Amino acid sequence: MEDTAILELYWARNEQAIAETQKSYGKYCYSIAYHILHDREDTEECLNDTWMRAWNAIPPKKPNRLELFLGTITRNLSFDRWKGRHAQKRGNGTMDMALDELAECIPAAHDTESIVEAAELERSINAFLHTLSEQECNVFLRRYWFVEEYAQIAERYGMNLNTVKTSLFRTRKKLQKYLEQQGIVL
């Protein structure tokens, strides 16, 4: 079913919208949540929460890209669940490493001013991503949006594991330089 038809179901408050959303985007959202949580039960709960959040948000929101809207909800819920599970102890898993890698080039939000500036940071990062080659962008997003492991990225793009790591290192350095040129203090 087309996104416009699914959105019409939401606006009509027809519960079939959830079934059609699951049918169209269930695998996509499952993939996002599972790469973050690595637990089927938690992933299923996140998906159920995603469908509920979408139901409660549409209307009044009318997303331009339903896939991105649902992916963002799923990702945020998954991170929240992951943080809740790891609040007492921090492991050495993929999530920790991915967040630590990005911490080198993304400023931390410690105060209200930083929170307000988050929208500008998001715009700058999106603009930066458009400066990358398609493969660089895909590798970067696979690591830091979908939280895939290096080996998965290497396999997906037919790359050597060290090439993936080097590419991500260089892209992080480019991002850091780009943000500094944009006047974003690191």
TrEMBL record:
Q: Which family does it belong to?
A: Belongs to the sigma-70 factor family. ECF subfamily.
Which biological process annotations from GO are given for this protein? DNA-templated transcription initiation
**Which PANTHER family does the annotation name?**
RNA POLYMERASE ECF-TYPE SIGMA FACTO, RNA POLYMERASE SIGMA FACTOR HI_1459-RELATED
Question: What is this protein's record name?
Answer: Sigma-70 family RNA polymerase sigma factor
Question: RNA polymerase sigma factor 70 region 4 type domain: from which residue to which, for each copy?
Answer: 125-175
The UniProt keyword set, sorted, is: DNA-binding, Sigma factor, Transcription, Transcription regulation
Coiled-coil annotated spans: none
InterPro entries hit by this protein: RNA_pol_sigma-70-like, RNA_pol_sigma-70_dom, RNA_pol_sigma70_r2, RNA_pol_sigma70_r4_t2, RNA_pol_sigma_r2, RNA_pol_sigma_r3/r4-like, WH-like_DNA-bd_sf
For this protein, the record's Pfam families field holds: Sigma70_r2, Sigma70_r4_2
Name the SUPFAM superfamilies for this protein.
Sigma2 domain of RNA polymerase sigma factors, Sigma3 and sigma4 domains of RNA polymerase sigma factors
A GO molecular-function descriptor: DNA binding
| Organism in which the protein naturally occurs | Simiaoa sunii
Q: Where is the RNA polymerase sigma-70 region domain?
A: 24-85
